[in-house]
Amino acid sequence: MTTPDLLRPLAILAAMRDIPGWLEDDEAELLIAAAAHVTRGGGARRLVEIGSYQGRSTIVLAATIRALSPDSRVFAIDPHEGTVGSADARLNHGSPTFDAFVANIAAAGVAAFVEPVRSLSYEARWNDTIDLLFIDGLHDRFNVERDYRHFARFLNPDAIVLFHDYAAYYPGVVAFVDTLVAQEGWSIAAHAGSMVMLYRGA
Ligand SMILES: C[S@@+](CC[C@H](N)C(=O)[O-])C[C@H]1O[C@@H](n2cnc3c(N)ncnc32)[C@H](O)[C@@H]1O
Questions:
Q1: Does pLDDT of 2 surpass 80?
Q2: CATH code of the region 9-200
Q3: C-alpha 161, offset from chain centre
Q4: pLDDT tens-digit map of 40-75
Q5: What separation in Å is there between the alpha carbon of 51 and the centre of ligand 1?
Q6: Ligand 1 atom with the shortest distance to the CA of 80
Q7: How far, in whole angstroms, is CA 2 from its chain's centroid?
Q8: For position 118, what pLDDT does the model report?
């Protein structure tokens, strides 16, 4: 008999903390809850992450599906050029992150559940339905909206969309999320730190 792969949130958070990035524990816990929610009916689900950096949030999503839905996959989209921030405020240009990303995913034991897509979001070719979309690329209004619009038509009716950095320090993220809620039928299901989770419904 093989050992069951249990969902161990504290172990996931402990593994995450070793990886450079900005995700806090409460935000990661919301990612775990969202991934668990979209995989609850069984079957292979597609979770799309825009902005993976060195894999901090990627391993949170991937470790969750490893335990709950091993046929599901995280599509981790990032050009890995090391540019982070907001195009309308400050961009920081660091070192390329792809090698660290691959090493961190492997070290966490989740490589089999992650499809790295080394691309800008809006240049990624996509044709499949999406169950969870997590947006954490550049944080100005233009880029966050472009990330969302490129994938929005592929979202399943009961899909979840999460945005990181929904906070006053990134007003473009706040403005766009608030527009989705006011004008496009989305509701805020949960909020932790600067992570906000949207679903379609009242
Ligand atoms: C804030 S970091 C992501 C942090 C990561 N989610 C974590 O938990 O550590 C932003 C990342 O977005 C990537 N990025 C910037 N523009 C992008 C775009 N248009 N499409 C995809 N990724 C993008 C950058 O290369 C960078 O690695």
A1: no
A2: 3.40.50.150
A3: 9
A4: 988 999 999 999 999 999 999 999 999 999 999 999
A5: 3
A6: 25
A7: 30
A8: 98
